[in-house]
Design a protein that fits this description.
9 strands; alpha+beta; 10 helices
């Protein structure tokens, strides 16, 4: 197991106890009763009570420690490219320009995320210049112009659509309702929200039954390839009835595939990342998806916890974690 610089055996902790609590308010209550040493994420509806807009603890919460870390996660809405409706690039662009990501982050998410104004790869990834990607910022005039070019001037003739979201993750419904309002106001279209269990949600989007849905991707490993692989054409089956596990939007672009394949074969990391940036821009130019926000991870810690690890991948090595002397008998 090893020893620290003073010869003490590692790890310091005797064990770790993990509690699975679905309700974040209940988690916060247990945390304040000192029944939890750490809690992940702050209840959205209590964000303004707990932290300032500068991510600092306020009021009675100042006694605790706060960790804030940009996450290697993107939250987005997917379009089914094999559907007659969303095969239309102008329509996908109209949707992208019609939503105000800054407003969603500031008001719906209480500042606990970053607007996805750039590409698919989150800005938390090191040595990847995500800000070089030109994505979509709110522009109602451009949204209406693309809607007109799509064949639906002022929303005329556009069918009522359904956005499919999964239950759980309390933010999903609130974000969906904000986007529902924006699409109605800026494109003059009606959107229903359908909430399903996570299992049924995945079944529908992978099998091509959903046309428009909520999705997210958390990095399996810290590399642009892990995000851009979601758009690799060879992952798409020939038959719409066959499940598409990775490229669930069924996006296909010979230009993207060529650049992506070249990146996969490039050994030099800097050159490889330049190719990934190029591929990322192609995805954005095609409006393959509707990026909404990049996550930030928030964690509350009791003041006696030391060396709790934090990183964008959320990898946890508890080897060096310990409690200050007056509570060194506690375990996590």
């Amino acid at each position: 197991w090893g020893k620290d610089q003073y010869g003490n055996p590692l790890p310091y902790l005797d064990g770790i106890r993990v509690s699975f609590i679905k309700d974040k308010k209940s988690s916060l209550l247990k945390f304040r009763k000192n029944e939890l040493d750490m809690m992940y994420r702050i209840p959205l509806e209590m964000t303004n009570e707990v932290i300032t807009e500068n991510d600092e603890l306020k009021g009675k919460y100042k006694q605790y420690d706060l960790q804030v870390m940009p996450s290697l996660t993107i939250q987005y809405y997917g379009f089914q490219h094999k559907s007659d409706l969303f095969a239309n690039k102008h329509l996908r662009k109209a949707f992208n320009y019609a939503i105000d990501r800054t407003e969603i982050v500031d008001y719906t998410l209480k500042g606990t995320a970053v607007p996805a104004h750039n590409g698919v790869v989150p800005p938390a990834l090191e040595n990847y210049d995500s800000k070089a990607i030109n994505g979509y910022k709110y522009n109602a005039a451009k949204a209406r112009e693309h809607m007109k070019q799509a064949g639906y001037p002022n929303g005329e003739g556009f069918p009522e659509i359904t956005l499919q979201i999964n239950s759980g993750g309390g933010r999903n419904e609130q974000v969906a309702e904000a986007i529902q309002k924006m699409l109605q106001e800026n494109l003059n279209i009606s959107m229903n929200i359908k909430k399903l269990s996570f299992a049924q949600h995945l079944e529908n989007l992978e099998s091509g039954k959903a046309r428009f849905w909520r999705a997210g991707w958390i990095a399996d490993y810290p590399d642009p390839e892990n995000f851009l692989n979601l758009f690799y054409g060879p992952h798409v089956p020939d038959d719409l009835n066959t499940r598409s596990y990775i490229n669930s939007v069924r996006y296909q672009s010979a230009e993207f595939d060529s650049v992506f394949q070249k990146a996969l074969k490039t050994v030099d990391k800097q050159q490889r990342n330049l190719l990934y940036l190029q591929a990322d821009q192609i995805v954005m130019d095609d409006a393959a998806i509707m990026p909404i926000y990049y996550d930030k991870d928030y964690r509350l810690l009791q003041p006696d916890v030391r060396n709790f690890p934090q990183n964008p991948m959320e990898y946890r090595n508890f080897r060096d974690v310990y409690f200050v002397p007056d509570s060194d008998q506690k375990s996590m």
